[in-house]
Amino acid sequence: MKALVERIKVAGVSIGGGIIKVDEFLNHQVDPGLMMDIGQELVLRFGERGLNEATKVVTPESSGICPAFCVAYILQVPLIYARKRQPVTMSSGFWLTKAPSRTKGGTVKLMISREYLGIYDHVLVVDDWLASGATISALVQSVLMSRAELLGIGCVIEKVYEPGRERLARLVDVPIISLARVDLDGDRLVVQGGTY
Known about the structure:
Layout: H1 2-11, E1 13-16, E2 19-21, H2 23-27, H3 32-48, E3 56-60, H4 65-75, E4 79-82, E5 94-101, E6 106-113, E7 122-130, H5 134-145, E8 149-159, H6 164-167, E9 176-185, E10 188-195
Parallel strand pairs: 3-4, 3-7, 7-8, 8-9
Antiparallel strand pairs: 1-2, 5-6, 9-10
Helix pairs in contact: 3-4
């Protein structure tokens, strides 16, 4: 996706420790037009893989919500975001998984209410980053615990220098789509098109 690749080249910054800041358009301030284009591109790529029967889109709170919302909106299906803190309204049981987070510092809980995810659902997991794969693996675990069908995984940006794709390789028949791939050459970002 050329517009995304160009935007990362202009606005993306390596801040050390393998962390890339794209707060200008994705993780703090959001470019709505680019985000809708990202949603359309993910839907197109899922469609090319025959993944047209999704009933839910699942993402982690909070940075994945914008791209996942756009995908869900285009597909006209509900979006579920895994909560990191249990609200008082989530009292009837939930699927609980945990994932380490470098940007949050420590381990985060991911909770999805059993009311909204179950055996009859066909799920696309969408997130902003594919890095270590820990967060996506935790979401996949929730989908599998619910006995829903995992159709595919879509990410806006993939860090090719991290083991995320390899970590998810056990999901043999599950396509993993990224729209842009980022590598580091020292502190310089090397950005290219994604993996479809």
